[in-house]
Specification:
CATH topology of the largest domain: Diaminopimelate Epimerase, Chain A, domain 1
Helix content: 25-40%
Number of helices: 7
Structural class: alpha+beta
Number of domains: 2
CATH architecture of the largest domain: Roll
């Protein structure tokens, strides 16, 4: 009588094994890169995740992958007819525009995956087509210019929220970002953010900027409401900062530096209603993410 019981147990174990095999087959393996953007040195600039997909995951999965990466932004790319569809996620939500993750994506494509190409087109959800081209050792991104307007009723929290001890020259805004203009780089460098107070401004982010000493202008950028307490180097913010400083300094080509702990440098050129953002990038990690 033991034989039927043994046969039953064997069949049960086989069914369990088949289920396990099915689970293993159904898992998605995503090529994943970590890239430091707006720098040529590892562990400087702004780190971004870059994930290559065959087709779109649902939005919840995209958020989970970005949270798992735990970087300021992760770029997700899906092949399209003339390039790639591109979306960006912070650890908490989708973002409308991201410069450093776009630069990171282009770096992987133009230097590693498709080095024969001179440029790549990205179709985005909120800002249409973005093009990135090789420019010698650099990559140049063609982004929309976001022209700031004077803020009529700015919040009065800056002394407490940023420990500012110098008066503001002016406050302007664009694309749900407050731009606080001060007089010296040291004022920007000495900002001490209170992220709890800044988070109350969500969906607004905050940038502090000043004329530079050995560059045209400097800045720092804070977006705790998006899961980004301080962004190391913010390409999208320079879509606002470049038009502002181009008008104020009377020049269309600008050298900028972000004064975060990691630091980073980029070159901006205002061309009509577009901004060309130029920089370098370096890969720090390559692997596969299984979900």
């Amino acid at each position: 009588m033991a034989l039927p019981r043994l046969a039953t147990n064997v069949l049960l174990m086989q069914e369990i094994a088949n289920c396990y095999v099915t689970i293993k087959i159904d898992r998605v393996r995503i090529p994943l890169f970590h890239v430091d953007a707006f720098t040529e040195q590892p562990f400087r600039g702004n780190p971004a995740g870059v994930c290559f997909l065959d087709s779109w995951l649902d939005e919840g999965q995209l958020r989970k992958v970005a949270a798992e990466n735990n970087l300021s932004e992760t770029a997700f790319l899906v092949p399209a007819k003339d390039g790639y569809q591109l979306r960006w996620f912070s650890p908490t939500c989708e973002v409308r525009l991201c410069g450093h993750a776009t630069l990171a994506s282009a770096h992987i494509l133009l230097n590693l995956r498709q080095p024969q190409l001179d440029s790549v087109r990205f179709e985005t959800k909120f800002h249409g087509t973005l093009t990135v081209k090789k420019a010698g050792e650099f990559l140049a991104m063609d982004f929309p210019a976001l022209f700031p307007q004077r803020c009529a009723n700015p919040p009065g929290i800056w002394r407490d929220a940023l420990a500012l001890r110098s008066p503001l020259s002016e406050v302007v805004e664009a694309d749900e970002t407050y731009i606080l203009v001060v007089d010296r780089p040291e004022t920007v460098r000495n900002v001490r953010p209170n992220f709890g107070l800044l988070q109350n401004l969500h969906p607004y982010a905050v940038a502090v900027t000043a004329p530079g000493d050995d560059v045209d202008f400097v800045s720092r950028y804070f977006a705790p409401g998006y899961g980004i307490p301080e962004d190391p180097v913010t390409g999208s913010a320079h879509c606002i900062l470049a038009p502002y400083w181009a008008k104020r300094l009377g020049k269309s080509k600008l050298n900028a530096r972000q004064l975060s702990e990691r630091g980073g440098e980029l070159w901006c050129e205002l061309v009509g209603n577009r901004v060309l953002l130029t920089g370098k990038a370096v890969v720090t990690l390559e692997g596969l993410l299984s979900i």
